[in-house]
Amino acid sequence: MLGINLPQDKCQGLRGFAIHRTDHTEGEAYYLRGLKTFAATDPGHPAGSSVSTRDHPIQGFGWSDYTAKPGHRYTYRVEALTGDPTALTVSSDVAVTVATEAPADGTHDVYFNRGVAASQAYAQRFGNRRPDDVGSAAYAWLSRGLAEAISGFIGATMPGEGLRVAAYEFHSPLVLNALKAALDRGVDVRIIYDARRPSPGDANAVAVAAAGLGAVAVGRRTHAYISHNKFIVRLVNGVATAILTGGTNFSEGGIFGHSNVAHVVEEPAVAEQFRVYWELILTDPTNSVLKPQLTNLVPIPAGYPPVGTMATFSPRKSLDALEFYARMARQANDSLFMTFAFGMHPLFQQVYRDSTAPIRYAVMEKKTRPMKAGPERDAAERAIDELRFRKANLFAIGSRLTRDRFDRWLREELTNLNVNVQYIHNKFMLVDPLSSSPIVVAGSANFSEASSNTNDENMLVIRDNTRVADIYLGEFMRLYAHHAFREYVERIGTDVSSTSPRHLTLDDWWPKYFGDTSQARQRRLFAGVSD
Q1: Which of 97, 260, 355, 450 has the smallest CB count inside 10 Å?
Q2: How far is CA 40 from CA 15, 324, 376, in A?
């Protein structure tokens, strides 16, 4: 992510910004590319083609490089361009050298899948064909390392070590086969899965039997309303050493479909809490038994979370965990970023209504939780619309381009790997992620009432880890930018017969990035400046 700033008195005649990238790791150097062109110099390429930002600059004060690779060292040079489109000149420039994060660092390893199968990249690479019709290349692209991280976590266990699994959807051949291979090489594998019938229990039971894991599926959760966990604990010499958790169901749709993350924590104290939690749910207790145990296992702090990593577990006796997350969100000083897969709870609606953070982002699967059409849903959608058009709030709702060749863009199709949640399945919150003391909350819970006092859930709360916050923020903004644009296109209902591209403007496009506008707030936040 590049946050760009240029003093307002130097913006007169600004045509946009060119971005040049030098890859010191692979020895490459070139200008990054975009889609929009000036009318006078439009090369007339077909839909989906890109052009150099040196000839057709970016008319905005931010840009994200989705071609950057993990663990590389780059220098980005941003050039302000002025003049006629046929002879653009550099009026000023600035360079910054960065090292991109690798997913793994030995303490917190964070793996996001692609999560945007309905995208230009998928349409260009695979022609919108379903993954099964494409084969392994499509699945590898969709995984983006997430499938490999899960199978790698399981595959790294040695004979005599142990794995403790807690799962909601549990029928991915990749995961179950990796567990069977671990069992066969002498790993002590024990599994708890949601066994409520018909869903997800029937599919889980069939997959467990087919994989030959029936004997080690020692816990079948039927008394939980939803046994929504997705975690694996690693044991070495009987001691918990690491956990893999997050919002990713162990299913094809969870790994390769909608947006998800797997988060590995190699901190024995945290892993031990997950092991204790696993033991508590093993006997399929009722909520009346489990709630006081989990409330006592991890007390909720009255103020900020401790520095480092803590975990929370559900179901609890009250909404104290949900209220804890809302309290942290309300206390954001600079910015707040949240994902909502099943609507926005009133506690967080209040946060987005009256907290003092100057900029607050939300990415949502839909405006509301699943609801039947009618007055109740209409009212719930109006409440979100009222919030989203406030100056401090920037919302994006999951969407895709259903029009072919709109403004150089290709039509996009979903993979059909997911039934209920098509786009946004992540569950995480970032409080002041660009500060020196960020807070990341991530796990299986949907920031809902049920996730706090009814379902089996787990969440990580990570404070003052700027590396983890950077990774989550980069992924949040990738999802936000992707869906915000697509939702806008679908909402305005552009004439599907219109295939003429929209060109870069020769008028002053930059004034909206100054003053007290949403765009100005974004510029100040990401460029780290105050006017």
Answers
A1: 97
A2: 13, 55, 51
